[in-house]
Amino acid sequence: MKRPIVLTPIMRLLARDEEGTALIEGAIIVPVLCILLFGVYEFSWFFYQQHLISTGLRDAARYLARLPTPCNAASPNWPINQASAKNLAVTGSVAGGAARVKGWTATAVRLNCTPIDNPTEASGLAAYRGGPIIYVVTASTSFADPALGFLGLLGLKSPTISVSHSERVIGPG
Question: Which of the residues 65, 114, 141, 157 has an alpha carbon 20 to 30 A from that of 128?
Fold first, then answer.
């Protein structure tokens, strides 16, 4: 036959003692709050980097769209203009400099110039204002985000930023 467990007066005191509960609750909650805080900070950093890249690509596409001879691959200035636009996207300056986003280089920027037919309709008006062909410049990139490292601690891959921006060529003015 089993004997019943008898609580001594000391054991009864310990069972009712609540002095250490705050320490135990804190030990459970603090790591969860830290993970939440660092996660929010890491994603904020990611969105900031994406914004910087998007701004750079918009600048490059606008730069090319405003050139006097845009999308002319036969022009001797076209390779120079493309290099300048890539520098503008990555560094914020046509001449180059420090990158807007660490690790992002001009080789990661792709520039395309697409001709779009602008036929005259039965009404005698073209679909878009302009000549029979309209050009659209597109600047794009795909870049592995230089994460702060918190995602790596959790065993997750760093996200890839893929951004594209298109501008209709309007020429100088």
Answer: 141
- pTM listed for this prediction: 0.78
Burial class (CB in 10 A: 0-12, 13-18, 19+), 49: buried
pLDDT digits (tens, 9 = 90+) for 73-95: 888 999 999 999 999 999 999 99
Across the range 147-159, mean pLDDT stands at 76
DSSP character string of 21-82: HHHHHHHHHHHHHHHHHHHHHHHHHHHHHHHHHHHHHHHHHHHHHTSSSTT-TTSTTHHHHH
Taking CA atoms, 94 is separated from 66, 130, 153, in Å, by 14, 28, 38
For residues 144 and 119, what is the distance between their CA atoms, to the nearest angstrom? 41
β-pair type (133-144, 160-168): antiparallel
The two tokens of residue 48 are: 């900031």
